[in-house]
């Protein structure tokens, strides 16, 4: 189960997807954006993916973890608006024993964060928005359609 | 065996191609669109696409950490573009 | 949430118990006995706990993990009969960032297995039973009330 | 100040105490009960309880890795028992 979804993530389908009678350990990771990611309070996140490549990359990451740790791996990532406190990403990994299950889950989330073409936009309480994409552009509130100003 | 060139337009300029550039996050917002079609000289390298983007992007330096995908597969800046290609400009990611 | 339960374990209540708006990572572990734990197929497990001390020990383990990793930890362990393939233990740990959440979850399950006064009895397909408690006693099937014979 | 002993029965034998022994897993099955009350000399150390268990356990050597709990707290074999104590014999565990 490798998916991008605009809906809230339920953990159980991922757990079911990787369950295996020969696997004694099953580890999940839920990633949630915290209220404070910067000095300005964040009210929500908006995730945008290059969907075709993101899905291919998530499939590749899962396949790598499965081969390396003899595991089964599922990954689901949100797209669109996500309230603070709601998970934006879930990973589940099962393996014969718990060290491999922990390692496979950790590998998948670490690689996802490093490689998957998905971007997060912080939506601040004051309506300003900023994409976390290395360009440091903040769009102030209220929505000036084309304004963008570098910060720092 | 002697190769014969089959370019339809004979002249000093190489034939032009049309490619689609996919833009995301702040690039998409700056360009005002997630897809931009560009007419470019044939075999333009992927890494040269930036300078053909709509204003104000073309006037900026390409962002640090920019990567490229060609037809939904990672590629390097030197890869030559062909007519109908889709090239994506991939800024540093922040998923998870 | 620290509990022993005779009912199937649902993961969501543990996830809810450790959720925290300041915590960006939440890791869970589900431990399930595999079909093959020995050369004889296992059909079910029976877990027995020294309940007072097991609860105290699970609380101590959770408190240690919480202090060491600035985490929130929940632990639930089954007692009584558990079918093969059903989880016997669940741990959930949340922390500010994912390395601490992984470490807290791993610490809790490792320490539980090492320290919690809980024992597993294998129930084999042929009806024979054996407690995993270091004494190596197998009670053959069909149930001879008082027979017990050392193996090896 | 001189202490006066208050043992109710004066004699050569120390007074006896009653303790409850909690047994689990294969020990419980071998004893046929999860709790056994034992009458023991006062201050018997926890580690000596094994030899007072019902047959066939008393005839066996104490299992390797046996640990002890006294009133639901871990203790060491040398801890002296008092009347009304609950001592648990904790075999190597296998939860998880």
Structural features, described:
- The complex is a heterotetramer, with two copies of chain A (152 residues) and two copies of chain B (96 residues).
- In chain A, α2 runs antiparallel to α3.
- Chain A has a six-stranded antiparallel beta sheet.
- The termini of chain A are far apart.
- Chain A is of the alpha+beta class and 152 residues long.
- In chain A, 30% of the residues lie in helices and 38% in strands.
- Chain A has helices spanning 11-18, 51-69, 98-115, and strands spanning 2-5, 25-32, 42-49, 71-78, 80-83, 87-95, 118-124, 129-132, 137-139, 149-150.
- Chain B has a five-stranded mixed beta sheet, with no helix packed on it.
- The longest helix of chain B has 7 residues, at 25-31.
- Chain B is globular, with a radius of gyration of 15 Å.
- Chain B is built from one helix and five strands.
- In chain B, a hairpin with a 2-residue loop joins β3 (67-70) and β4 (73-75).
- Helices cover 7% and strands 27% of the residues of chain B.
- With 96 residues, chain B is mainly β.
- Classes of the chains: A alpha+beta (152), B mainly beta (96).
- Chains C and D meet through β3, α2, α3 and β7 of C and α1 of D.
- β2 of chain A pairs antiparallel with β2 (25-32) of chain C.
Summarize the structure.
The complex is a heterotetramer, with two copies of chain A (152 residues) and two copies of chain B (96 residues). Chain A is an alpha+beta fold and 152 residues long.
Number of distinct beta strands of chain B: 5
Amino- and carboxy-terminal Cα gap of chain B: 56 Å
Q: Mean of the pLDDT scores of chain A?
A: 90
**How many helices of chain B does DSSP assign?**
1
Q: How are helices and strands ordered from N to C of chain B?
A: EHEEEE
Oligomeric composition of the shown chains: heterotetramer
**N-to-C span of chain A:** 41 Å
Shape of chain A: elongated
Radius of gyration of chain B: 15 Å
Instruction: Write down how many β-strands of chain A occur, each being a DSSP E stretch of 2 or more residues.
Output: 10
Strand content of chain A: 35-45%
- State the share of residues found in helices of chain B, binned by percent: under 10%
Order of helices and strands of chain A: EHEEHEEEHEEEE
List segments of chain A where confidence is low: pLDDT < 50 over at least 5 consecutive residues. Answer: 144-152
Alpha-carbon Rg of chain A, integer: 17 Å
